[in-house]
Amino acid sequence: MRMLKNNLGYPRVGAHRELKKASEQYWQGKTGRQELFAAARKIREENWKLQQEAGIDLIPCNDFSFYDQVLDTSLMLGVIPQRYTDVLAKNSQNSEIDLYFAMARGYQKDGLDITAMEMTKWFDTNYHYIVPEFTADQQFRLFSDKVFEEFNLAKQITGSTPKPVLIGPVSYLLLGKEKEAGFDKIDLIKKLVPVYVEILTKLKAQGAVWVQLDEPFLVMDLTQKEKDAFTYAYKEINKQCPEIKTLLTTYFENLNDISLTVNLPVNALHIDLVRAPEQLNDVLVQSPEKLILSLGVVDGRNIWKNDYIRSLGHIKKAIAVVGKDRVMIAPSCSLLHTPFDLDLETTINPEIKNWMAFAKQKLNEVNELDKILRDDNELLHNNLKAISSRNLSKLIHKQEIKKRVEAITEADANRASQFIARQKIQQDNFKLPLFPTTTIGSFPQTDDIRQLRSRLKKGELTTEQYDAEIEKATIAAIRWQEEIGLDVLVHGEFERNDMVEYFGELLDGFLFTKNGWVQSYGSRCVKPPVIYGDVSRPNDMTVRWSSFAQANTEKLMKGMLTGPVTILQWSFVRDDQPRAETTNQIALAIRDEVVALEQAGIKVIQIDEPAIREGLPLRKADWAAYLDWAVKAFRISASGVKDETQIHTHMCYSEFNDIIEHIAQMDADVITIETSRSQMELLEAFSDFKYPAEIGPGVYDIHSPRVPTVEEMVSLLEKAAAILPVENLWVNPDCGLKTRKWPETQTALENMVKAAKAAREVF
Ligand code: GLN
Ligand code: ZN
To answer: Which cofactors go with this protein (predicted)?
Structure first.
């Protein structure tokens, strides 16, 4: 027998985001189901053929999704919240897709107004899934036939036997949320497993051989009860469906409980050897006889070329211990998290491009590893050449930068004085009123502004013309902020396309792709920058715009930067050095910018870190180490300035309870956070002196065009004042306003200033 080449999943938006375009047109009512289904079918056909050509043996099906694979699973299992049954009733004909989109996006039609289901992050990726909703009397039944239809389609297209992909029953429950009190979702496992048995039995009858069951929760912290659920579910499945071959897949971390996992009665187990190579030895030693191991050696989370020597090391070791018949090779996780095809990139420096691999290239890597094992030395040689060219390249390695990071001291991460002393100085200098008002940075990015940028790119505008237009927009925003009486102004970020891309384009060590899209949620894709080399800041980045803005007002103008952790989190990062090292390089670049802003006369500087919580490792035991370097990186970026300069930071909606100490250790003078949607509940984390500095809890939700009333904002401020010392409170919206339109923004901010003034009367 030969070694099987396995693939867990493939990007599904299409090489040119065809699915995005098709679904958005369908949502707008411009096209019908037929067009949508045709576009979706084409993507699947192409994906399957591509995988077949790349020699993949276990080609996934049902990894395609119109929106999200967790939502697909909810539909498959009939987990449809009560509020959508109306949609179902109104569209009785062929309406599954409309019900599905209603669950994903809400439904405002035919006199109905139904909210969408909640969305949250898929483990530590930037992919977001639709959270299943469970009730105490939750029932499960086979509802959607998508998996069976896709199996048939894939069989027909490939002429071979595809491998259906399902989210496993335990992870499915753990991904969901109890919508009422009085039960534990994990107890639903007994009701859920019979539906899985029914599905597997049906797939078997259709001719399926292997079925992939994704159980990523096997790498998470697990309670005994959750572990028991795994044992129960897989014993039951094995008992009821002994003929189907089960491939249990885990990824993103090492197995939480190796002994539990390897002893589940499945035919094969997939482990992630990119994120967690250290688990290989134990898994090999502890695996019972007959368990096949799928080795995830090709990185499904990043865009770098595989280091064949390292991967072959793992594969050969596994073969030596368990034998060739019990080894499969695969990418580490679904390729969903990588862009489609590197061949489409025509502008990347060829030297750097030769170090990279997107989804299509990664399939080929799996194939090549197999060929090398069968003695293809030339492939190995070529890979070695690429890998060593990267190890030594002058494009990447800059001694001055490495030395500067090495020389970072504790002092570099500390402001001159403690917060209390700084606060006194800043208060004396700024003389701001109680409840000072400000905004988070961006103002509406209108079509006009966006068009300026695209015309500049196309060469239809000169830089001078573009700058003049941006200056106009900035001045208008300043005048208007002065008129309504805001205390600390912003320049509006009109010159920025995106808060990470803008900096990436100005820093050395970053590159940008033309088509490197990755699905973030539904039809939304992001194109993360690639950090390929040591990062440095050849020139000032924001000084021009901030000092221009400051020169046009007597009021305080806030400088606006993106923090090192957020820049790291929202990029594809280097895999040849620890994340902490890369973050420190970015931190030093931001630090220099902060100092340059101070020298240019900017007295208030905000360093946004909305992604700090996203960076938390999957397992609690690893949190402290991450928070240590992440917080320190922020401090390095913020600590080059004098006590007189006020450092702000900003974070979007997140739970702060379990990391409040670390947020405090960031030692910003002011933090602005998103709290309005939680009615200031999130602010509780900052109560009882757990947070020493000043805080601006957002008083209105910027995600909707709704204009908040003065009264409701006053009442939120009163709530905040009951939790925190009044002297420490700021007044601001939840986040930046770039996605809003001007009219609602203007009224909302006018009301906000009125609310602050009203609050000043009370206190
Ligand atoms: N300064 C940024 C803005 O206002 C912050 C955005 C964010 O927190 N995501 O747009
Ligand atoms: Zn925000």
So the answer is: Zn(2+)
Q: Record the tokens describing residue 235, joined without a space.
A: 């014993």
Instruction: Report the C-alpha gap between 471 and 686 in whole angstroms.
Output: 39
List Cα–Cα distances, 197 to 141, 455, 568, 614, in angstroms.
Answer: 11, 57, 43, 36
Q: Are 358 and 281 in contact (CB under 8 A)?
A: no
Where residue 205 falls among pLDDT bands split at 50, 70, 90? very high
- Cβ-based neighbour number of residue 502 at 10 Å: 17
Write down the pLDDT at residue 92: 60
CB 691 within 8 Å of CB 665: no
Q: Which atom of ligand 1 is nearest to the CA of 560?
A: 1
Is 289:280 a contact under the CB 8 Å cutoff? no
SS3 20: helix
* Per-residue pLDDT at 329 exceeds 60: yes
For the chain, the residue count is: 763
Count the helix, strand and coil residues of the chain and give each as a percent rounded to the nearest 5.
50, 15, 35
Rg of the chain over Cα atoms, rounded to whole angstroms, equals: 27
Give the tens place of pLDDT for each residue, 136-174.
999 999 999 999 999 999 999 999 999 999 999 999 999
Residues at the binding site for L-homocysteine are 440-442, 493, 608
d(CA 530, CA 526): 12
Alpha-carbon distance 148 to 156, whole Å? 12
DSSP-based three-state secondary structure for 268 = strand
Strands 530-536, 508-511: pairing is antiparallel
Under a CB-based contact definition with an 8 Å cutoff, are residues 759 and 731 in contact? yes
CATH number of 400-446+485-762: 3.20.20.210
- Rounded CA gap, 666 and 657, in Å? 15
Domain boundaries, the chain: 400-446+485-762
- Of the pLDDT bands very low, low, confident and very high (cuts 50, 70, 90), residue 420 is very high
Closest CA to 122 of 347, 303, 334: 334
Residue 91: the pLDDT is: 62
**Tokens of residue 123, six digits:** 């483990």
- Is-contact 490 443, C-beta < 8 A? yes
Ligand 1 pocket (Cβ < 6 Å) reads 440-442, 493, 499, 560, 608, 610, 650, 652, 735-736, 738
* Confidence band, pLDDT 50/70/90 cuts, at residue 93: low
Q: Ligand 1 pocket test: pick from 442, 546, 648, 703 the residue with the most ligand atoms within 8 Å of its Cβ.
A: 442
| Known binding residues | 17-20, 121, 126, 440-442, 493, 524-525, 570, 608, 614, 650, 652, 674, 735
